[in-house]
TrEMBL record:
Annotated ranges, domain BRCT: 598-678
Entry-linked Pfam families: BRCT (PF00533), DNA_ligase_aden (PF01653), DNA_ligase_ZBD (PF03119), HHH_2 (PF12826), HHH_5 (PF14520), OB_DNA_ligase (PF03120)
Cofactor(s) the protein needs: Mg(2+); Mn(2+)
Binding site for Zn(2+): C414, C417, C438
Catalytic residues in the record: K119 (n6-amp-lysine intermediate)
Source organism superkingdom: Bacteria
Residue intervals passing through the bilayer: none
E.C. number: 6.5.1.2
Function: DNA ligase that catalyzes the formation of phosphodiester linkages between 5'-phosphoryl and 3'-hydroxyl groups in double-stranded DNA using NAD as a coenzyme and as the energy source for the reaction. It is essential for DNA replication and repair of damaged DNA.
Protein name per the record: DNA ligase
Family: Belongs to the NAD-dependent DNA ligase family. LigA subfamily.
Organism: Alteromonas profundi
Annotated binding of NAD(+), by residue: D36, A37, Q38, Y39, D40, S85, L86, E117, R140, E177, K296, K320
Amino acid sequence: MSESLQNARRRIEELRTQIAEYNYQYYVQDAPTVPDAQYDRDMQELIALEKAHPQLQSASSPSQKVGGQALSAFEQVTHEVPMLSLDNAFDETTLLAFEKRVSDRLKDTRVLHFSCEPKLDGLAVSILYENGQLVRAATRGDGQVGENITANVRTIANVPLSLRGTNWPERVEVRGEVFMPKKGFEKLNEQQKQAGAKVFANPRNAAAGSLRQLDSKITAKRPLMFYAYSLGLVSPSDFSLPSLHSQRLETLAQWGIPLCPDIDTAKGAKGCLDYYQLILTKRDNLPYDIDGVVFKVNDIELQQQLGFVARAPRWAIAQKFPAQEEVTRLLDVEFQVGRTGAITPVARLEPVFVGGVTVSNATLHNQDEIERLGVKVGDYVIIRRAGDVIPQVVSVVEVKRNGAERDIVFPSTCPVCDSNVEKLADEAVARCTGGLICAAQRKQALKHFASRKAFDIDGLGDKLVEQLVDADLVHSPADFFTLTVEALIGLERMAEKSAVKLLNALEASKTTTLAKFLYALGIREVGEATAANLAQHFTTLNAIRSANLEDLVAVSDVGEIVATHIHNFFNEDHNIEVIEALINVGIHWPDIEKKSAGESLPLEGQTCVITGTLSTMGRSDAKAKLQLLGAKVAGSVSKNTDFLVAGEKAGSKLTKAQDLNVAVWDEDALVAFLAEHE
Ligand SMILES: NC(=O)c1ccc[n+]([C@@H]2O[C@H](COP(=O)([O-])OP(=O)(O)OC[C@H]3O[C@@H](n4cnc5c(N)ncnc54)[C@H](O)[C@@H]3O)[C@@H](O)[C@H]2O)c1
Ligand SMILES: [Zn+2]
């Protein structure tokens, strides 16, 4: 045996063993270990080697068989008409070669007509109807013997249990794909995550795992759907059916069988390529996952002349889309700090072509996700990039581990500003507590500081804040107050007049209130109302700074989480420096008179609802002001509502309030009440 033949034999053996293992994981365990793209490459390599060395061909090679195997846990079903697989095309040339092969074999030069169908990514199912009633459903299995999954298929909402009309064969087998629509898949995974149960890698897996359940009650809860794409057994065999495949699909539709709405017909390989392009552009917006399109010679008589090879019909081909999942190596993990301080682990990858682009980063979301995936630095991972969605790490290829992989360590301090990282027990996201001093959060924090409900600095909008930060003029809020006319007029579109105006506005804003000051600091989850409650409760900044958690939760509206945020904020030296710098540039506020214990707020114990558009203030303003006066602000009107504030264009809430005889305040009444109690 020549050396090259020996090498080919060795490689063929290797590939056959490998593919058999992939098949087992994919078809039997419903848990693939490699992306389809890797599987397809190995399979194509095997096919090419076997073609080049015909003496090494074997009927037991995975290239000659329909993958899959019936689980013994299910009753077995022998298919009267075998359920085959499809040949694959990965490019235009292969598709043109397919057309030529078909024409040559038919010895017919006329243009061929094709049925064009999205290749749904689920699993093939055969459903048998006898006298119009669903009597049996089976998986494809190895093509000859499948699994009896009747009870499970009966739970799929769009599978009819009986056929419509009366004009159907006595026994007829409908074949099609059971799949899980994208939305349902996302929802299911969300539920699984929450329940701490297994998360499915992709919709195909979820569909297979859901359908091959021994308990059909579980299947019933899964959002599965079925679309038919062909007929299997028809008995009596002389039952009159249309002569074109596309018309037969129409017949199925008349019997009440669901079809994929994106099926079409085309003339010649050229028409097929147009269809391919069309579906490719629609792919991301389709409600179901597809991995390509299928072209079938439309004339049934021609199909019969063409016949089959071992594992697939000669009259059909699946043209695959570019893979959305690929395998690559995770080289490192970096931690990015977002505008709000959220710390996101980002996987640095060995660049890989997936979803039509070269990907070298993928998000790992948060620590929980890293733990769920069990991923380590150095691992081979499956990356998914579908549409414009940020690339995701789907799973780890554990069989490729060599022991040199390292655990991913989450930083305890911010990689940008070195402040402590805060992660609350019931939150997935870890955050930098650096707030005002963290460069990553600076722009956001400064915009918030200058905003209307905070320091309310006239002329200091978001754009200008960005300019000031980019020009290195402002790093922390106190820097606003040391700006000079000279520095400002160096900025684009800033004339002396507006610079002077801005400095005046800054000067005026130095007189503020403790509530506004607290709000401006941008402490997490401390909104206007909470800031006001804190000010009212503690009356001085020092008292708030030295408050412990217990003191803080005593404030109305402050729960444990908010208390923790406040406490952590004031425990950060950087933040104290920011506060002191502000006081040093002259920020001040009037003392607060503490309400005596007996004195109650004017709206204490009252519940109100706000609806419609207010012209003098926003709804959130009104809400905060009413809360400060002691009112509870609810979202809907009920018999417990004391009064409704109704602005312009108030709708159903107003009607309901009137029905329930609830007092209604118009905007004037609200403004008057607020003025009276200022
Ligand atoms: N990742 C892995 O480990 C792994 C392992 C095995 C198989 N696979 C994937 O599965 C493929 C092989 O599986 P296969 O044998 O089921 O072949 P296939 O998926 O390439 O094609 C045949 C199947 O297509 C489906 N199909 C969808 N729409 C159809 C339509 N309109 N008309 C006809 N059939 C339609 C049917 O289920 C049919 O059985 C591989 O190419 C690979 O992508 C992956
Ligand atoms: Zn930081």
